[in-house]
Amino acid sequence: MRIGITCYPTYGGSGVVASELGKALAQRGHEIHFISYSLPFRLQHYHERIFFHEVEMVDYPLLEHPPYALALAAKMSEVGAQVGLDCFHVHYAMPHAVSAFLARAILGQGRPKIVTTLHGTDITLVGNDRSLFPMTRFALEQSDGLTCVSRYLQTKTREVFDTRRPLVVIPNFVDTRRFTPGGRSDLRACMAPHGERILVHLSNFRTVKRVPDTVRIFAQVCSVLPAKLLLIGDGQDRLQALHLARSLEVEADVIFLGKQDDVESLLSIADLFLLPSQEEAFGLAALEAMSCAVPVIATAVGGVPEVVEDGKTGFLLPPGDVQGMARACLALLGDESRHAEFREAARRRAVAHFDSNLIVPLYEAYYREVVAS
Ligand code: GMT
């Protein structure tokens, strides 16, 4: 098939899913056309059968806010006509599903079909905003196929939009051959030169991730045993996390790595992964950590319990329960055999339920169904 994929190319789960899906589909022989305002960050290298079409924004003084949704629609229709796409697969409803609707209207042939994948905040925050609500609902109704990344998000979307449209759950996935246990010893020695335990957090540092809680949890762990905290990513709450690390006197042990491409190398040297989010439709970073045999200490919110099994592959606590999460970290770090059990269970779960070879064929089958409909 020829598939046009649109996503936010920035550091975020939906862009990661779109990029990894595009790469996996290309490997399976499909022709993939990314249509986005810049190259998604996990697509920096050349991949056979993957093409990139940049959405160019008009720069004119009258247009104080460049019309991204329209520029995207124009580019989507151009690519659709040029290569004869079977399907537009848009990640994140707003405004991508609206742009796809416009592009198809411009092409005027009822093709390409539109598949929209919902990732979380497109429904829970953006789509739920009063001003955008009717537009989001319209876009969902005009899509030929709708998928979401967890059962939680399926229920939430039905609740918020009161829609009866079929909404298929296709969970996020991980390449378990790339995200593997047993990290590089040189990297471990560089991050934790005295054999300290390594805790990792990876996100876009938005408020919903509660990054300051990550630092608070770490400070409690650090007061009991030597440890390092690796913070991967960047965003609005980075400075707050930095100041907090300073005031809790753990700054020397918190390593702000910023945005990183090769997250598998960093995750695979970790002892624990921390995800204390306020809300999380899935928790892709937690799954990637599990694939590297890293147990997850997280909050029991949204779709996280569908990924992390409480008491088996990690521990789930209420949002804001910093003490509880710190205790959970110490319970595992202080008991070697239990930690090893959790490590194995985490890896097993990622391989058995979320491997890309299991999930990508679900997308392929869904495209075929939508294109044939
Ligand atoms: O988590 C973010 O802030 C980024 C956001 C996105 O759309 O890029 O992530 C959402 O999609 C990810 C991939 O499906 C999910 O793993 C995240 O749980 C979800 N984030 C939230 O629901 C807050």
Secondary-structure topology with pairs:
Layout (H helix, E strand, L loop, with lengths): L1 E5 L6 H15 L3 E6 L13 E5 L13 H16 L3 E5 L4 H12 L5 E6 L2 H7 L5 H10 L2 E4 L2 H11 L6 E2 L15 H7 L5 E6 L8 H12 L4 E6 L5 H10 L6 E5 L4 H5 L4 E4 L8 H8 L4 E4 L4 H4 L6 E4 L4 H12 L2 H19 L1 H17 L1
Parallel strand pairs: 1-2, 1-4, 2-3, 4-5, 5-6, 6-7, 8-9, 8-11, 9-10, 11-12, 12-13
Helix pairs in contact: 2-3, 8-9, 8-13, 11-14
Describe this structure in words.
With 373 residues, this protein is of the alpha/beta class. It is built from 15 helices and 13 strands. Helix 8 packs across helix 13. The chain is globular. The mean pLDDT is 95. The site of ligand GMT has 20 residues, from helix 1.
What is this structure, in a nutshell?
By secondary structure, the protein is an alpha/beta fold. It has helices spanning 13-27, 68-83, 96-107, 121-127, 133-142, 151-161, 185-191, 211-222, 238-247, 263-267, 284-291, 304-307, 322-333, 336-354, 356-372, and strands spanning 2-6, 31-36, 50-54, 87-91, 113-118, 145-148, 168-169, 197-202, 227-232, 254-258, 272-275, 296-299, 314-317.
Which segments are poorly predicted (pLDDT under 50) over 5 or more consecutive residues?
none
CATH fold-level topology of the largest domain: Rossmann fold
Structural class: alpha/beta
Q: Under the CATH scheme, which class of the largest domain?
A: Alpha Beta
- Average pLDDT over all residues: 95
Shape: globular
Please identify, by name, the CATH architecture of the largest domain: 3-Layer(aba) Sandwich
**N-to-C terminal Cα separation, in Å?**
15 Å
Spatially, the strands of the biggest sheet line up as: 3-2-1-4-5-6-7
Number of helices: 15
Which percent range describes the beta-strand content? Answer: 15-25%
What is the gyration radius calculated from CA atoms?
21 Å
Approximately how much helix is present in the residues? 40-55%
**Count of discrete structural domains:** 2
DSSP strand count: 13
List the bound ligands: ligand GMT
The SSE string, one letter per element, is: EHEEHEHEHHEHEHEHEHEHEHEHEHHH
